[in-house]
Amino acid sequence: MTATLEAPSILYEVEPLPDGRELHVYPDGSIVVSGRAEIRPHPVEGVTWITRTPARTRARRRPRTTIFTSALPVRTIWPSESSMERVAARRTAHERARELLLSLLNPFQREDYVHHSGFWVETARGRIRLGRLYNLEFRPREKPYEKQILCVLPVNHETLPLPDIWTNLLLVLNQDPDKFFRVAVRR
Amino acid sequence: MGIMRILDETGDTVVKWSVDDPETLVEAESIFRSLSMERRMAFARPAGAPASETTLIKAFDAEAEEIVWVRAVVGG
């Protein structure tokens, strides 16, 4: 329902809102909401409340927040000695594995691996790039411009340092490429 | 003196033997047999040689300078 009221100096519209308040729209476009909002929405015509509406609104006590108060001391959790030992052991393993891999690479492969963390291996079937786990780029000899993605891994590869995985695949590719391509999953 | 490098979570575990020392030789042979039964593959190479100079071996070679043990490969 919209009513137009005439004030001494201005003309404006008053529109009742569903929650019981009133919306005042002035000619210059500004609006004012007046009145007190009901805690329940305005009932739909012909539909009754399922439960009784409360007689009055009651403010709830704001819960006390203690999480971000400055009174709490800041506690720094340092890595435990055992976890630091594990990290150190993993780093040592990675270094050993890398050393072995570098000793197995030819000078071109070594330079490629040092700068790009990957290297190409030539096989009778084509070139294959080792360096991205689960995504080995393969360029078949008969279609060198075609790129295939293969996935080959050593058994229980998750227990090996990454350079050991490349050592594993490199040696198999060099000496038993048929086995490598037989198990390869093409993506 | 020959060495076997077995790839594992530590990078690799080294087993050394000498043809003049029967005890180390027997132990190295025994390890070779047990790893072969795990379907692992052994590649022999002259010490420090690149992968292109490695050879896939099926039996223990006491004269090999270095044997690198790798795991079987599977599709991922």
| Estimated structural class of chain A | alpha+beta
Strand content of chain A: 15-25%
Question: Number of DSSP helices of chain A?
Answer: 4
Largest interface: A-B, 39 and 26 residues
Explain the layout of strands and helices.
The complex is a heterodimer of chains A (187) and B (76).
Chain A lengths: L2 E4 L4 E6 L5 E4 L5 E4 L46 H24 L2 H10 L2 E5 L2 E5 L5 E5 L7 E7 L7 H14 L1 H7 L1 E2 L1
Antiparallel strand pairs in A: 1-2, 2-3, 3-4, 5-6, 6-7, 7-8, 8-9
Helix pairs in contact in A: 1-3, 3-4
Chain B lengths: L1 E7 L2 E7 L4 H16 L3 E5 L9 E3 L8 E5 L2 E3 L1
Parallel strand pairs in B: 1-5
Antiparallel strand pairs in B: 1-2, 3-4, 3-5
Task: Give keywords.
heterodimer, A: 187 residues, alpha+beta, five-stranded antiparallel sheet, four-stranded antiparallel sheet, elongated, B: 76 residues, Ubiquitin-like (UB roll), five-stranded mixed sheet, 1 helix
Structure, explained:
The complex is a heterodimer of chains A (187) and B (76). With 187 residues, chain A is α+β, with helices and mostly antiparallel strands. Chain A has helices at residues 81-104, 107-116, 162-175, 177-183; strands at 3-6, 11-16, 22-25, 31-34, 119-123, 126-130, 136-140, 148-154, 185-186. In chain A, the strands form two sheets. Chain A has a five-stranded antiparallel β-sheet with strand order 5-6-7-8-9. Chain A has a four-stranded antiparallel β-sheet with strand order 1-2-3-4, with no helix packed on it. In chain A, α1 (81-104) packs parallel to α3 (162-175) and α3 crosses α4. With 76 residues, chain B is α+β, with helices and mostly antiparallel strands. Chain B has one domain (2-70): Ubiquitin-like (UB roll) (Roll). Helix content of chain B is 21%, strand content 39%. Chain B has one helix and six strands. Chain B has a five-stranded mixed β-sheet, covered by helices on one side. Chain B is globular and about 45 Å long. The interface between A and B is medium-sized, with 39 and 26 residues. β8 (148-154) of chain A pairs antiparallel with β6 (73-75) of chain B, so a sheet runs across the interface.
